[in-house]
Amino acid sequence: MNQHFINGRYVAGQTGETIAKLAPATGEEFARIACGNAADIDAAVKAAHAAFEGAWGKLTAAERGRLISKLGLRLQDHFEELARLEARDTGKPMAQARADIDATARYFEFYGGAADKVHGHVIPFLNGYSVSVVHEPHGVTGHILPWNYPAQMFGRSLTASLAMGNAVVLKPAEDACATAFRLAELASEVGFPDGAINIVAGRGHEAGAALSSHPGIAFMSFTGSPEVGKMVQHACADHLIPCTLELGGKSPQIVFDDADFDAAVPIVCKAIVQNTGQTCSAGSRVLVQKSVYDAFVGAVAQQFSKLRAGTPEMDLDCGPVINAKQRGRVQSFIDQAREQGIPVLAEGQIAQGVPNGGFFVTPTLFGQVPRGNRLEQEEVFGPVLSAFSFEDEEDAIKLANSTDYGLVAAVWTKDGGRQQRVSRRVRAGQVFINGYGAGGGIELPFGGTGKSGHGREKGFIALEEFAVTKTIVHKHG
Ligand code: NAP
Ligand code: MG
What we know:
The chain is α/β, with parallel strands linked by helices. It has 16 helices and 22 strands. It has two domains: about 5-245, Aldehyde Dehydrogenase, Chain A, domain 1 (3-Layer(aba) Sandwich); about 250-440, Aldehyde Dehydrogenase, Chain A, domain 2, CATH 3.40.309. Strand 12 (about 250-255), helix 10 and strand 13 form a beta-alpha-beta unit. Helix 10 crosses helix 11. The longest helix has 21 residues, at about 95-115. The termini are far apart. Bound molecules: NADP nicotinamide-adenine-dinucleotide phosphate and magnesium ion (MG). NADP nicotinamide-adenine-dinucleotide phosphate binds near residues 205 and 225. Magnesium ion binds next to loops.
């Protein structure tokens, strides 16, 4: 694993320097990854250009789609192996890792099938003219991904770009990149031409910065924090290329007095504890109408207190967080809220017998959280749920829209008019009514506004992002 994957094969890094990879569940080193630099990125971009101009670029859309679909079938043959790799790398429970690999396969099915279905159109224009609008690949796209769902992100970001005919260069997160490399190997095995998929491991400020500022990159897809997203967008601005930014969130679950509690309570708990809260679309705020606040939040607290964190093999509700730094960050939110006297309504448990060195935190439910508090405004990216109360519909919308983020929201009410009014007024890229799908739905356009980023991934719309629209005006002779 301590190499890069460039031009269809593993290659040593230019410097030979490596980074220790610790298992989040134990804190112990189990691998070293290569520490890529600008020269490694340059080699990967050159290989991608050669593939785009050569064997990869010459394939028809149907042939590209077939390769992506074949990779999906190949993934099924290695399902358990990939799930175990993902679980060891990220510390997530095996059930979550299996669900992730399943979702990754769905991306390959979806974009494999979609590759030859991106049709252009014809515009009626002046007499004696034909006008066609076609969608062409950008060329070489760059992808910088986080550590929370490494395999799924490969499916979401890379496969949509490949389906459009781009060649790709990926800088995965140094904290979890094992499945990305394995998927690239499998892609070669099923017949992807050399250079179509290239991966350079390494640190963000080095390999990531080199990728986003490389003049050979025509489009950047970034998923991660708003702070780094800004840097990537600046780098893109310097060479005038577009980018999509999938950043964080502070997504609200809005619960009205007529909500179906039995349906809402388990989903509210799951939406924050899934992947140990390390999900950009985690439902990290629960906003409850004052008249039912005690009853609803009491029911959530009861379920919340049963949540348990353990190792991948224990397969409990959640795992450790990714690394010691993240544990410190999540713990600092919890400690500060306690110091401020914000009531702890429930705590989950860290299971008996977890290794001492693992990066575990106790799932924690806070309420009432005062408006304007850090827990309302800042993304914790851990298993910390904050409860707030609101008066009426107007107040609910005000509270839902009170952060700079706008990624996902849920509205829980039986009132049809209210379902529509609130869905339209809440600032978010996705709104669920009487349900919540943190991260789910390969077919569903996904992305944010404001501090949650811009551009859309998933669904057919992602294919448009990974393409350039060209209008061809033909004057008949
Ligand atoms: P991060 O620090 O922003 O890192 C994301 C990626 O960017 C990593 O591969 C990182 O490399 C790289 N990077 C760091 N500095 C860079 C630079 N100067 N130039 C280019 N690339 C650079 O985020 P994270 O800590 O990995 O993940 C947590 C954050 O990501 C949270 O805020 C979360 O909400 C967000 N997130 C959003 C989504 C979404 O779909 N919207 C999904 C997942 C996560 P290294 O870390 O390897 O050094
Ligand atoms: Mg990082």
